[in-house]
Amino acid sequence: MQKQTRRILVLTIVVLSLAITTLFGADDGPWYYGKRIASFTNEGLQHADTKAIVAIQDSYRGKSFTNELFDALQSELYGLDYFLYFYGDAARTGEGGNELAITFTFYELPYIERVSIEGNAGIKTKDITAALRTREGSFFDEHLIERSKSEITTLYLKKGYADVVIDAEYLIDDETNTVELLYVIDEGVQKRLGEIAFTGNAGISGDVLKKQLSSKVIGFLNSGYFNPETIEEDIGNLQAFYLTQGYLDATVLDYQIEDISTEGEKYQRVRVTFDIDEGEQWFFGGIEVEGNTVFSDEEFASLITIKQGAILDVSRVARQIEQITDLYWNNGYIFNAISSDERRDLETHEVFFTLFVQENEQAIIEAVHIEGLTKTKAYVFERELAFGPGDIFSKEKLIRSAQNIYNTLIVTDVQFDIITGSEPGTVVPVFQVTEGNQMDIQFGATFGGSVDGFPVSGFLQWSDKNLGGKGRDLAISTNLSPDTQTFSISFSDGWVKNRRWANGLSFTFERSEKINALQRGTGSPYYTGVGTNYAYPKGYDNALAYAAANQALPARQYLMQYTYYRISLGYNTGYTFMFDAGALSIGGGLSIGLNYAYYDNTKYDPFEKLIQRYRERWQFSNRLSLSFSWDGRDLVENTSRGYYISQNFTYAGGFLFGLSNYIRSSTSASAYQKLWSFSLDDRPANVVAGLTSTVSMMLPQYYYNLDTEKWGWHDAQMGATRYEMLYIDGMNMGRGHSVVFDQAFLWDTQGSISWPLAHNVLSAEVFISGTGVSPTLKQLKFDDLTWYFSAGGGIKLKVPGFPLGLYLVKNAIYESTEGFSWVAGHFFKGKRENSGLSLVLAITTTLY
After folding, report:
1. If you average pLDDT over residues 154-180, what whole number do you get?
2. Is the Cβ–Cβ distance between 719 and 660 less than 8 Å?
3. Count of Cβ atoms closer than 10 Å to residue 123 Cβ
4. Where is average pLDDT lowest: 88-92, 335-339, 776-780, 787-791?
5. Out of 157-166, 527-536, 565-574, 692-701, least confident range
6. Could you say which DSSP state residue 311 is in?
7. How far apart are CA 327 and CA 336, in angstroms?
8. Structural contact between residues 825 and 836, judged by C-beta atoms closer than 8 angstroms
9. Number of H helices, E strands in the chain
10. 662 and 722 Cβ atoms separated by less than 8 Å
11. How are beta strands 726-728 and 740-743 bridged, if at all?
12. In terms of Cα–Cα distance, which of 348, 317, 324 is closest to 338?
């Protein structure tokens, strides 16, 4: 009996029972109408969850009886899926008999006491049980049994059991109202694809057609399971592919299965042959527009990129037609009536397409509605719109407005629609937003710290990225690890009234233990920059020996550690100009800091001159930054296409004074392209290719040198610590390599393909990168760079506080003097000395 039938039966029985078993107290209805429900009594319960029933009934206790109320009550009870049917009796209760007591008599569905599976050998029982919709401890439902059979069948089809038959047997014990359910499986013979063949394909080779199929023959990387459902999908894939090759009438007539097994095989090897009728091949003749007065034929022709006579690709023609219609939609002509027709020239085998346009007036935006707001003030999203009331509607601006709202990072989803306005010729764009978690308190463990420090730290952070619902960001955070402790507070606002003028203030205190620091060698001068002296660290006898060892760290007993303190106050500002092609941002900032380094100067003597000077007293380290960027990405997060170009300058010291004196330049360009889309958890997901290249340089600075007591130009190494110089961190740049410090030039290029495994949680990535470095800018040549190459794949988290990536990587190094060499790894190591992969735990970052 289906649910709706039982629902009607329940209501009928309940109403009749209440009507028959009670007395009428008035002409206008039974006595219990409007009476307060005082109590419920339940009879006939055997296996149902009494607590769940009482919880529902309690929500109706104390309410006045109406037919609508009682209908809602019985619907909730029936929704538990416990009952075949039930009826209720009404009785007077309470003082003066003015209250209502209801007694329910329940007739339960049979209770599933046991579920067994019989006949399975190719698939484990636990996998079948996981697919069942009917399980022990639930109530009998024939519809769910049929769904369970379908789920089991799907499991078997995916494993090549094309002839599987599933049956369900059950026996109901009327006395206990229980049932034992048995699924009987006749697996049949497992089939695997040994060959795929085609007949009738004269125009396209079989090898090309095989690439369009989801089905694959058995091989080293393919199981080759034969699945009739996949074959049906492949028929659609083949016909769709023929449409891209000019074969408009191509069809797959049928497919045949032939047993090609050999003796001794554990499964049946089959050949699948697709019988194809290709028809004739057609070519593109052109697209014409009739009825157009707003736009000229030349304007439409400029949108058509397919050359006349090219092989006809129906999908490409559809995109060209969409561009033509978008020209109207982007200029407000959304009320146009557009139809299309095609004409075939049998002599030239060309197909000509004609669009018939009935032009109407432009659509004017009457109002813009933003729905789904919970905390955010409406104006926060309204200022992101690319159009407003009174403007001519534009599809392009509609999409850009949705992207701008999403890029506030306040929302997790934006959907849009267009509804007709109250006046003729007007429309109302509607944006439906889903606000994300904007205020949170986080605590626990995270991964980060300095490049050579302890990787795990505890953190406590409170942040509100939508303070007061006004799109402002306030954050207070602490990070604690054995070697680094920080406290910071920051406030930022991306707007000043209705202008994209961003401003932010920050305060930071940092204390960090720098371990494995170099000491000055006996008789060595202090290190004050590459090429400025012959400094060498303790553990080496001279600078030549240090250079011959490729500047490797000496033994641990020669190293030192010091505690580094920094207090800084920062201000940053920037303005963003919005254009159709992207966003231009210009920004700058100033950071005033005090630094101090502490170590036992009776025991240690640092290699770096700057560390020795920071030991003397608290010293200023001031920085001025300037940045330019052009953002042509569709989305800031989950980018699927577009590009990003940026230029950043940092001016430290100089006329700002302080011990840190250098100029850093960083130029970066990234490009993204969606390769294809797929469905993940019933939501679209993209496979995206990305390419990023960054060139960074530490330029000389003009400042007052304390050693010479003169103003002059000096190399960056003389005014920067090894942590302020450029370096390869082995996680984001040169993945898998050891840390490389003290570089004045760095060129990092990385290509990747990534796709989500779980939305906003986990992604997979394969990559290849090359990072070239040089410790000096003098006589810089491409051939003189030392290159660190990495290639591999892995997964990365996108959870705040855990920006981790785990990769298997193969590394290589190229040096001008040594040539190219592979780096050995510990995983999957072969016989060769330099074989094997490295396992890299990376702290991932993003460009923006």
Report:
1. 94
2. yes
3. 19
4. 776-780
5. 527-536
6. B
7. 12
8. yes
9. 13, 38
10. no
11. antiparallel
12. 324
DSSP string for residues in 611-648: HHHHHHS-EEB-EEEEEEEEE--S-SSS--SEEEEEEE
Per the document, the length of the chain is 848
Question: Sign of torsion, CA 543 547 551 554?
Answer: negative
Check: CB of residue 73 under 8 Å from CB of residue 1. no
Helix (H, G, I), strand (E, B) or coil at 754: strand
Angle between helix 314-329 and helix 228-244 axes, rounded to 10 deg: 70
Spatial distance between the Cα atoms of 522 and 539, rounded to a whole number of angstroms = 9
pLDDT, one tens digit per residue, over 219-276 is 887 899 999 999 999 999 999 999 999 999 999 999 999 999 988 888 999 999 999 9
**Pair 436, 412: CB distance under 8 Å:** yes
* DSSP string across 358-424: E--PPPEE---EEE--SSS-HHHHHTT-S--TTSBP-HHHHHHHHHHHHTTSSEEEEEEEEEE-SST
Could you identify the residue written with the tokens 């209770």?
Answer: 111
Q: Is 841 left (phi over 0), alpha (psi -120 to 50) or beta?
A: beta
Position 528 scores a pLDDT of 73
CB-based contact 642:752 (threshold 8 Å): no
Residue in the block written with tokens 């020239």: 345
- Find where tokens 């990787």 sit: 455
User: How big, in percent rounded to 5, are the helix, strand and coil portions of the chain?
Assistant: 20, 45, 35
In this predicted structure, the answer to whether residue 18 has a pLDDT above a threshold of 60 is no
| Block residue for tokens 């302020």 | 724
CA distance 178 to 170: 10
Q: How many CB atoms lie within 10 A of CB 839?
A: 14
Encoded tokens for 146? 């049929």
Structure tokens of 819?
Answer: 């040539």
Centre a 10 Å sphere on the Cβ of residue 138 and count the other Cβ atoms it contains: 18
Q: How far is CA 358 from the centre of its chain?
A: 42
pLDDT tens digits, 684-720: 889 999 999 999 999 999 998 877 788 989 888 888 8
Two structure tokens written together for 558? 């020669």
Bridge partners, residue 649, by sequence: 626, 665
